[in-house]
Amino acid sequence: MTELFIGIGFALLLVFTTRERPVSAWIYTATLPWLAIIYIAFALYAGDLEALGQEIFWGIPLVFVAMLLRRGSFRGSVYLVACAWLAHGLYDVCHDLLFINEGVPKWYPLLCAGFDLIVALYLVFVGRSLDNGNIRNIATTTP
What we know:
Low-confidence stretches: none
Largest sheet: none
Radius of gyration: 15 Å
Number of strands: 0
Order of helices and strands: HHHHHH
Number of helices: 6
């Protein structure tokens, strides 16, 4: 359970260091593909081709959505980014129920889920004060 609180702490650190900076809109979309890539790297580390295929299968939608949202500037985009973070947090929690990737450290899914949850909640919170919920406006608004 400590892992969850460590993940939450890292997420709070990210949120408070990027608030009110132009980089904040970029950081929340650009880091989404890395969430999938980390799991892929764990499968590569373990040398498990079956897990690698599963990680790619489950990770491709997140990478696609992240690329779309990174390029897009539209109404409600902050909520779509928040949903992507929340979906990955759910993936973290359910990961071992879907399949086993021996390369994933036992502590990692819970740490990552805590991180993802806080980022998603922050994006929903800050989205309420954004003009049209556009993530590009995130750095210009102080919640």
